[in-house]
Amino acid sequence: MSVDDDDDDDKELEEEASSDVPTSPNEVADRQSIVESAIPPDIRQKYELLSYRNAAIVLSHSRTEEFNELLNALRQFTISSDMIRKAGGNESDIPKLIAASLGPAGWHETVIQGDLIVRLKWREQTGTNKKGKAIFETKSKETKRERYLDGHKIDFVKGRVAFDMEWNSKDQTFDRDLYAFNAFFLSGVIDVGVLVTRGATLNPVLRQLGPALKKDGTPETKLTKGNRLYRMTHEKYGASTTWWGKLIYRLNAGRNGGCPVLAVGITPACISDWPKKAL
User: Fold this and answer.
1) Nearest 5°: CA angle at 270, between 86 and 29?
2) Average pLDDT over residues 45-67
3) Which of 95, 99, 108, 119 has the largest count of CB atoms under 10 Å?
4) Rg over CA atoms, the chain
């Protein structure tokens, strides 16, 4: 069997795997009525939304300034079909659109570092009095674990809100993001996280966009069974990349720990040149 045949088999296995990925919330997610009460209608029409651990309530009631800035960034976020087709992965022009909105508003890439100080206290018998009764003295010991927290990074943090976007990375990137959210949360520096990725409703669109494009705009090709063929756009966005199903699977499993998380899925409504009748 040739390398090309192996690649085709791998793609078939990935497609089968993607069909098994749950894209719906389980019982740990917040009721959809909570999302509807906290998120404006225009945002709900443009994105897929799920809230975990009351993230939508925390944002809309406690962190209104940051929440409104995020809503404005999501409203402004618009992509084209050519942007989706072009090479670049998570470093494509698409994530940069969010950065262009949030950066000037004071959202910054932030790394958390911290030392862990542990104090042990105990009562130790140091002798007896004249009546033979034990005499105790309180003693203590302090140890310090330097850089106990080190290197956990979130792309955008402002106030007590964290925000990240994963367009087309390896799906394990979600584990890193959710772990970082929880590390910041447990350290008391954020109250909630927001994570944006490709929505499940975008998958059918990817199959209709035709050949993938190189950075110069020319079609990508591949060699399959000795034939030079176009590489289709949907092939760039496999089941093992960051998309709604891979995120919801992790949130359903509690990978966010105690940190409230609002999941946001990009839908065809974000594509400027996609026919409205197709939405």
Assistant:
1) 110
2) 98
3) 95
4) 25
234's tokens: 């949907």
Q: How does DSSP assign 80-104, residue by residue?
A: -HHHHHBS-GGGSHHHHHHHHHHGG
Residue 228's identity, in one-letter code, is R
25-41: burial string, b at 16+ Cβ within 10 Å, e else = beeebbeeebbeebbee
* CA–CA gap between residue 212 and residue 201 (Å, rounded): 19
Asked if residue 137 lies in contact with residue 123, where contact means CB atoms within 8 angstroms, the answer is: yes
Q: Is the pLDDT of residue 195 over 80?
A: yes
Task: Classify each residue of 62-94 as buried b or exposed e, where b means 16 or more C-beta atoms within 10 Å of its C-beta.
Answer: ebeebbebbbebbeebebebebbbbebeeebeb
Q: Which residue has the tokens 């925000």?
A: 163
Classify strands 192-198 and 161-166 as parallel, antiparallel or unpaired.
parallel
Q: What are the angstrom distances between the C-alpha of 151 and each of 110, 166, 194?
A: 9, 19, 20
Distance between first and last Cα of the chain: 41
Helix (H, G, I), strand (E, B) or coil at 251: helix
Q: Where are the domains of the chain?
A: 3-113+150-278
Choose the CATH number for 3-113+150-278 among 3.40.50.80, 3.10.20.340, 3.40.50.620, 3.40.91.20.
3.40.91.20
- Four-point Cα dihedral 266, 268, 269, 270, nearest 10: 50
Backbone angles phi, psi at 254, to 5 degrees: 80, 25
| d(C-alpha 200, C-alpha 185), whole Å | 28
Task: Give percent above pLDDT 90 in the chain.
Answer: 73
